[in-house]
Amino acid sequence: MFRSGLAVLKRYPFPASIRSYSRTARMSLKAISSKDAASLDKDLMEIGGWSLDQLMELAGLSVSQAVYRVHPPSAGKNILVVCGPGNNGGDGLVAARHLAQYGYKPSVYYPKEGKNELYQRLKTQLDNLSVPFITDFPVAIKTADLLVDAIFGFSFGGPLRDPFPTIVSQIEAASVPVLSVDAPSSWDIEGGPPKEGPGSKFMPEYLISLTAPKPCVKYYQGRHFLGGRFLTKSITEKYGLDLPSYPGIDQIVEVGVDAEGRL
Q: Which residues does (6S)-NADPHX bind (predicted)?
């Protein structure tokens, strides 16, 4: 399925060198490797006193705010959240809960559920809000107004394993706009989109990086947000991060990406 006209331009925008980011903050932010991202999370929990629940809650809240920013309820309330089996999928479950509270009509596709007890509690929370877990993905994707790709995040090392090659191909070919969480699923965190196969032409309209951008963002051509308004000065200094100022009470800030991948 292919879109034409403005819809195609939206999905495959102009090259970074000629894009304009009139709505974004202009600044230079450092990308963080998957190894450092994992180390940073460990420091937050072991030194900073954060729990996994808290970090996932703030990540999911950031995702939900990004959805609201780019696609308010007036633009269509049917949000399809596709969740993977790990923490990225957990972020998606949290986001779906917040979206339901905002007045959207989210549904969740969770083809390979995470085994952590935390994920089961997040599912229960969604059940209590009557958020449906769908099984027929091809049908659901046709009626969605926006899709949240929360399948794989910074820990993805490839290759895609069943059932995800088919799922990524279906998302890639769909006409629905996509917001990816932390990285477009199927992309190598360092090297960007795969050279061939599922995901090789996957360019979501929107991307929200969590805590800090990942190196693959230099290959990204769309609207880019940062979420993670909880880092301390000691953590940002340890990892050499130069984070932006978040406006007001927002959990997200929009930033641009230039042709060299600098934010």
A: 87-91, 153-159, 182
